[in-house]
Amino acid sequence: MKRFASCLLLLLPFWCTGQSLSLDDCYQLARKNFPTIKKQELLRQSARYSIENAGRSWLPQLSVSGQATYQTDVTRIPIAMPGVPELSKDQYRLQGEVTQTLYDGGISKNQKALLKTGEALQLQQIEVSFQSVKERVAQLFFSILLLDAQLKQQEIYTASIASSLEKATAAEKNGTVAQSSVTELKAELIKADMSTAEIRSDQKAVREILALVIGAPVTGALIPPAPQTAVPDLHRPELQLFELQKKNVGLQEKALITGWTPKIAAFVQAGYGRPALNVLNNAFDAFAVGGIRLSFPLGSLYTYQNNKKILELNRSELDADKETFILNTKTALAKEANAIEKYAQLLQQDDALIALRTQITRSALAQLENGVITTHEYITQLNTEHLAKQIKNLHQVQLLNAQVTYQTISGH
Q: Stretch 33-49: mean pLDDT, rounded?
């Protein structure tokens, strides 16, 4: 309930007020809403229990065993001795043993390290998988920004058509403008309204998709990110994943060594049976034995060299995968760097082009009002100016998108 309440308090401002969202806000909300992220706490708890179990191997180990046997012969003394009974062929034993590890060759320590590295690997794999979510969020975010800019420009264009229509209607009443000009402007206004409706529909659809990804309604304005400077160094989560994988291989190599190192343990056996420790006593009796046990498992030496070579090959594969990833990432960064440079240059040209197109449109409007050109010719010039402004909007969003994509690819 506490976690639910904290999440509710986090999302409440967005639901209640339609608060503006930045790209970082969307990243944070998407992370909280990402189902795989919710596995992190479960992985931590599971690893904690496993590490505790590994540590309990140092606790005294208790085992209980029992047996009842019948044998075809028993130990006999060839000389008859008074007071020494003949042993029974049916024998019984119930015993318990307590073993305390004194030295395990580093198995427990290495097992804990492997468990911790395994936990870190799984958590890091989740971070890697979240990269695709960030890319998806950024794509939707900039699509909305572009649609917002297009809608704003479309509304300006529609207002220009409506203003021209109003003037043409008044001029028609005075007999200075033909009815065909008014009709053409009405048709262009309907066309502009249809474009506006189409943009609004696309805008609504993309906002709903982004809302599903981040788990919160996207009803307010989106705050464009500030222009960002490209940083070439890499901080991708995949690089840390490679390092953890190599660390895991190193721990596996240590495990190969601990597999054949000697182990020392103290033990105490106690039980009840017939015969007990004195094999010449045929009566049921209690017994106890204590001591130190040394074990030296050498069977793993048969496969040690081959297993070590396999791990060396795994390390080489990881190095090759890391080099391939870095090469592909640097290639993607070079592509985005060229895109940033391209859109920056295009925006400079857009400003010059729009200034000229605006001047041409104003001249065309004056010519239309003086009857020098037709309404169709004026609309053509107005559309050309409108298209130039829409292209500038596109280039602005593409520049920001390229800058953010560059940062995302580099891991910043």
A: 85
Q: What is the value of pTM for the model shown?
A: 0.75
Position 357, amino acid: R
Specify the DSSP class assigned to residue 225: P
Residues 134-172 pLDDT 10s: 989 999 999 999 899 889 888 888 988 888 888 888 877
Domain ranges of the chain: 19-60+102-260+300-410
Tell me the CA distances in angstroms from 69 to 89, 92, 144, 150, 355, one per residue in order. 8, 6, 83, 92, 107
Give 227's contacts (C-beta < 8 A, 6+ positions apart): 399, 400, 403
- Name the residue type at position 410: S
Length of the chain: 412
Enter the CATH code of domain 19-60+102-260+300-410.
1.20.1600.10
Reported as a single tens digit per residue, the pLDDT across 251-272 is 999 888 888 888 999 999 999 9
Amino acid 35 reads P
Helix (H), strand (E), coil (C) string for 52-117: HHHHHHHCCEEEEEEEEEECCCCCCCCCCCCCCCCCCCEEEEEEEEEEEEEECCCHHHHHHHHHHH
